[in-house]
Amino acid sequence: MSTPTVDLEHKEATGEKPVKYVYFFGGGHAEGHGKMKDELGGKGAGLAEMTNAGLPVPPGFTIQTEACREYMRKGDVSAEVNRQMDEALARLEKLQGQKLGAAANPLLVSVRSGAKFSMPGMMDTILNLGLNDHSVKGLAERSNNPRFAYDSYRRLIQMFGSVVLDIPKPAFEEVFDGKKKQKKAKLDTELDAKALQEVIAEYKKVVKQHTKRDFPQDPHEQLVMARDAVFRSWQNERAKTYRRINNIDDMLGTAVNVQAMVFGNLGETSGTGVGFTRNPATGVKEFYGEFLMNAQGEDVVAGIRTPVHISELEKIMPNVYNQLHEITTRLEKHYRDMQDFEFTIQDGRLYMLQTRNGKRTGRAAVRIAIQMVDEGLITKDEAIFRVEPNQLYDFLVPRLDEKNAKVEVLATGLPASPGAAVGQIVFTADQAVEEFQKNPKAKLILVRGETTPEDIHGMEVAAGILTSRGGMTSHAAVVTRGMGKCCVAGAGDIQVDEKKREMHVAGKVFKSGDWISLDGTTGRVIEGKLNTLPASPDDPELTKFMSWAEPFRRLGVRSNSDIPRDALQARAFGAEGIGLCRTEHMFFAEDRLPHMRAMILATNEKDRRAALKKLLPMQRNDFIGIFRAMDGFPVTIRTLDPPLHEFLPRREELMVEIARLEVTKPKSPKLKELHTLLNRVEQLHEQNPMLGLRGCRLGITYPEISEMQARAIFEAAVKVAKEGVKVKPEVMIPLTSGLKEMANQAAIVRRVAEEVFTEKEAKVEYLVGTMIELPRAALVADEIAKEAEFFSFGTNDLTQTTFGFSRDDVGKILTAYLAEGILKQDPFATLDQDGVGQLIKIAVQKGRETRPTIKIGICGEHGGDPSSVEFCAHNGFNYVSCSPFRVLTARLAAAQAGASAELKIEGGRTK
């Protein structure tokens, strides 16, 4: 979404026509049109289009986005912007027969933002601009409604003070609430004109106190200050965060829409509202929205008063209702999409203030896309771009049922794994298992500072996971996504005291057994026990929609699955194989960990082989189950990757236990065992274990580990093949950095394979490849490809080693980097195409130069991120692999990438 800038000084010096900064609309004609979203923003383009269509739109003008970019570069706008704005204002005054802020019959305007992509509520608006101490009297006389005039003025001072002068909103709210209390008024509308004049006097004092100057009385000064404030609001924190989440270019800028005011607060024949041409939550084709009589726009959205359903408007003003329904139906047919609209009724006359394509849930998006195809509004090819890939989460996970429920949000963390979970708090994995064994129907939320691989047994029985530390690729996040469990990670406002088994948040203390609810889709932690609504992945509408998308998909989609249950789940979602089976997760099971630890504690090869011999049948059975589940589909199995210390107790825990026993049971035989364990833990200790003895380095140092794993894989493959199941094993060597490492491990795998085939008198086809997760591996990929038959990019570690970030600690850095705009996205969530992506391109090119048929895949968390999937689709990948519950997302993202190339749709996914 890069945006060119305009060198106005060069244009003026060369005599070229100056840039058109300001576009007028009104009198049945607009200088712009609906396709000018780059210049006019979505709101300005919509106003122009509605004006040209002859709809009742208050006139005005739009200052285009280039003026905003100029303001961001220079801290001010050019004289040409000011000149064109003044010309447009004069034209508006002439059309309306009014003067901005005149003492008699004043013109008042609204000043609103409007970016190319909808950013609801992220930027700022000022209403009733042009009022001052003199014009408010003229408005009172003209309207014959002093209360309305002074209400409009107090609203201007409050909005202008907050938005333009940066005065905290509570400073005004305190004055207003105090006046209501003094006058014993429950509603704002119960304050009369005299009371509102008193509020205005107090508001002026607030302005003077905070800014050391009076509230500006010059209407033109108000307009310039408001325009510049809207430009600045493009850079406020909530706008920057929204753009980061929605991948919107920071350099697009916002337009400013200046529009003649129409008043919904003139009395009981006036009102204001917002609506949708279809239900945005369900997709049902119904006229949907809310309104308030005798109100201005912010009253509807601020929750000060309870809005009324739009169907009630038909009873109050049937003619206005019918006109509104007819206009919005026309707009939907014109734009061929569900419309989100705003309107005002002034003295019984309808005015349209905005129309734009409406935001909607995933379920609604699918339903609306199908409906519009059936209605002939759009084609099937267009329909597949009407759903964002991530919206398909809605079909896969339970949701909180918040209808008629009291929702008290305690904290908000990272939405690490989507869905909803409601349960009773437990603080350790053992406690979770203990509670589950007492009652297998128990709903448990495992609350930890952070999780480790040894918590896997507790995570398995928990309904959801909550951590106070960790990011989107932390252990808790990655594992829960693979399990399809809800997880909120990195909720920094929560303090977890695991020793006391207490959670402290929002001034409250929660203990074991207390109920909380998690919303993994938004990251909310909610007090109490809410109900949930079940998922329905076999939804017939989803099936129909995906049948339209699938023919465009050229990229395979696999799943990261470690157990047969996950593999079957992934197949149900449409996975075409397993792209990553992590063997280390199998060793944490209760019946295997002792043998794994015995292997690690062994001081010689003989003892290691003895322990591995006990693990062999267990590992073989694991692979048998997975091969059966993935009948006919490839299964990529990664040999042991993590450092060995992860399978041992923590050093600090051992020291504490030893100290305790030396005091309480000094002659206990367990002391010797613990000292031996501590000694081995200290031997294995590394300053930076993620760059230490792990991956292929383990297999090279202890080749018997690689031998055991290879034997388990091929014995399982042969056994299942004899049952008539089609088996396609792919053995993946992790963390290689060059040809010799790859050759060493590939030789072991191939030797063991031949040994098993000879022993069992049967053969299966297989591949040996590697994970590309180090920059050096990408740079020498042509050499590695001499041995590797496939590459799978482990982008979690490749991102870590390219940036030099520790993914477990990056949260401390990311907050500042995202706030300062140093990074646009979390590189562990969305692939860094400028850096990591270039390494991937190099590796793909070099690998295919050596081995043209080499298979290329990705198995990091990026395999389920839509923009990362699009990158893979456009760079020659054969497949992506992701968590089972992201398979649908990856399938749609891959289909959209294929369709955008085949249909030559610029920009791919729609916003």
What about the largest sheet?
8 strands, mixed
- Secondary-structure content class: alpha/beta
> How many beta-strand runs?
34
Write out the strand line-up for the largest beta sheet, numbering strands in chain order.
15-25-24-17-18-19-20-16
Average pLDDT level: 89
Beta-strand fraction estimate: 15-25%
Radius of gyration: 32 Å
Low-confidence stretches: 1-14, 907-911
Distance between the termini: 12 Å
Which of globular, elongated, flat, extended, rod-shaped describes the shape?
elongated
Q: What is the share of helical residues?
A: 40-55%
Keywords:
911 residues; alpha/beta; 8-stranded mixed β-sheet; 8-stranded parallel β-barrel; disordered C terminus
What's the quick description here?
Helices cover 44% and strands 17% of the residues.
